[in-house]
Every structure is written in C-alpha cells, then in structure tokens.
Amino acid sequence: MDFTLTEEQVLLRATARRLLSAECPPSLVRGHIQDRSLAGPEGLWRHLREWTALGAGPLTDLCLFLEETGAVAAPGPFFATTVLWAPLAGHHAGTGTVALAGANGEWTVNGEPVKTFVLDADLVERVAFVVGTEDRPRLGIGAPGNRREVGMLDPSRRVFEVTVPDDLQTTELDPSTLRELLARAWVALAAEMLGTSRWIFDHSLEYAKHREQFGRPIGSFQALQHKLANMALVHERAWAAVYYAAMTIDAGDPERFRAAHVAKATAGEAARLCGKDGIQIHGGVGFTWEHDLHLFLRRSFGSEHLLGTTDWHYDQLADLVLV
C-alpha cells in the first residue's frame, strides 16, 4: 500500500496547519474552558465550518485535517458535527452531535432513555438519537433539551447525558450504515489523537534539548533518550495504523473493521505512553496550570476513553479475528 500523500493532500495538511496555528493558540483553548460557551471558539468555528464538507469525502483527507486539529487541541463542535452528525443527519444542516451510548458508556445501540457521552451538546443545534436494538436501530432528530454535563478529564471537550425526548419521531436505520459510521469515527478520532501525541512529543523533545541539569541538557541523559525514542516509535506505529485504516475504509476493503479497531487501539497506546513520558520529561513544570502541556494531556487521555477504550477495541478485534 502506498502511503505517499498526493500534492492535494500535502496542500490540505499545510493549509490546515497554518489555519489552526493562527486561529487556535493555547490561550483560546484556555478561554473556552473558562467561559464554557461557544464564545471562546466562535471565531475558530467560523473558519472550521468551511471544512465540514470533508466529512462527506475520503476519510484519508479528513484524517489529515483532524490530525492538525488535534495538534492544537481545538475546541468547538467541529468533530461532533463533521464526524458524527453529518453522516447521519443527511439533509439536516447546521451543527449537531450523536446520542448513542447507554449507561455502560459503550457506543452500541440500546433502548435506554438516557444517552451518555454525547459530545458538545451545549454547542450544537440538533442531536441525532440512535435508539432501538442492535439488529433494528432507529434514528430520530431532536433538540439537545434535557441534558446534564458530566465532569470529565478534558474540560475543553464537554460530554453530556441527554434524555431521549418522549415525542421523538424515528425512522429505520440500516445497521450496516451505522457500523460504517462508527468505523469512520474510530479512525477519525484516532487521527486527531495522533496530532495531540505529536504535540506532546515535539514539545518534550524541545524541552529536553534546552532544559539543563548538572550543566548539561537533560536530553543528553540516556534514560530520557530512551523515553523519547519510545515515544517516537509508538507515534509512528499509530500513524501507520491510522492511515492504513483510513485507506481500507475509503477502498471498501473487507479488512476495514479490523483495521479501524487497530487504529483506535494503537492511537490510544501512543496517547498513553506519550502522555506518561512527556510529563516525566517536563518534570514539575509540566504539572502546573500555567504550562500548556496539561491541555494536551487532558485531550489525549480523554480521547483514549472516548468511542471505546484501547482495551475495548482490542476485545472487539479479538471477536473479529477469533470468531
């Protein structure tokens, strides 16, 4: 499989990187956490909503863009709208999110009256409720009315419990359509996690080059060199897994569901190791609120548990392989 990017993809990635580095500094993420409304990222959203059409195109292109949103820990409804809402909403325009998971947090169809892990329900106009059973799912579009915010590790990406409206009108939803949507969402989130892990690695490496102890840069010590080498290795492994999965989904390859589980699991492993070693390399300063590292640690660890944990995806992979 050829992993070489086309000229158009190189331009897409470069454009996304310039846009996001200019429009989403860490100060914007901090502002969004503190004012807890769309007022913080509203200027950013004006730019990002021009790119929501990527959700209807090749997943590889969407992953390239999302990797850059992860590298700035971008807040706002872009992920929920582009990755989750748009494929289900069809002709419904505007911002939205999806309510699917039940009390156990797993993104599987259920008939429970309260949906959990609903992303950014306070920032969107509509919610796509998935109800029914695994073999007969149903879809209804409603307002994010009765909702309760749930405290999570990452305050820049809010999660809610949302009650299914009593008067919700639903239509049948093809189970295969939902399965394809979830596979795309796993890989898309994994791509965003790549960007976040990359930020942690890049800044840990830069810190190790300049921070001195005993008259030497700490990066000259073998123990830290091993940590940085391991961070680079797990990130590269995850990058290959994510874009392989994106390509298999774009091609409709029979291996795409296995590849999607592998992508989310390996991105989770990279998030976990890069976060753990990144904080050790930074030492005490990395724990302070004033340092930007904690913003990316929170996004990284929060995303590892979103749309299925690393262990859950390995369990699903085992079911596909062993059955």
Walk me through this protein's architecture.
- It is a single chain.
- With 323 residues, the chain is an alpha+beta fold.
- It is 55% helix and 12% strand.
- The chain has helices at residues 7-23, 26-35, 42-48, 59-70, 78-89, 175-210, 222-251, 256-282, 293-305, 310-322, and strands spanning 96-99, 114-119, 126-132, 137-142, 147-150, 159-163, 170-172, 212-213, 216-217.
- A four-stranded mixed β-sheet has the order 1-3-4-7. Strands 2-6-5 form a three-stranded antiparallel β-sheet, with no helix packed on it. Strands 8-9 form a two-stranded antiparallel ribbon.
- Helix 4 (59-70) packs parallel to helix 6, helix 6 (175-210) packs antiparallel against helix 7 (222-251) and helix 8 runs antiparallel to helix 10 (310-322).
- The protein is globular and about 70 Å long.
- The model has no long low-confidence stretch (mean pLDDT 92).
Fold blueprint:
Layout: H1 7-23, H2 26-35, H3 42-48, H4 59-70, H5 78-89, E1 96-99, E2 114-119, E3 126-132, E4 137-142, E5 147-150, E6 159-163, E7 170-172, H6 175-210, E8 212-213, E9 216-217, H7 222-251, H8 256-282, H9 293-305, H10 310-322
Parallel strand pairs: 1-3
Antiparallel strand pairs: 2-6, 3-4, 4-7, 5-6, 8-9
Helix pairs in contact: 1-4, 4-6, 5-6, 6-7, 6-8, 6-9, 7-8, 8-9, 8-10
Largest sheet: 4 strands, mixed
What is the domain total for the residues?
Answer: 3
Arrangement of strands in the largest sheet: 1-3-4-7
Strand content: 5-15%
Number of strands: 9
Low-confidence spans: pLDDT under 50, at least 5 residues? Answer: none
CATH fold name of the largest domain, please?
Butyryl-CoA Dehydrogenase, subunit A, domain 3
Which of globular, elongated, flat, extended, rod-shaped describes the shape? globular
Question: In percent, how helical is the residue content?
Answer: 40-55%
Counting helices, strands and paired strands, the structural category is: alpha+beta
Count up the helices.
Answer: 10
CATH class of the largest domain: Mainly Alpha
CATH second-level architecture of the largest domain: Up-down Bundle
Mean pLDDT: 92
Distance N terminus to C terminus?
27 Å
Q: Helix and strand succession?
A: HHHHHEEEEEEEHEEHHHH
CATH homologous superfamily label of the largest domain: Butyryl-CoA Dehydrogenase, subunit A, domain 3
Rg calculated over all Cα atoms: 20 Å
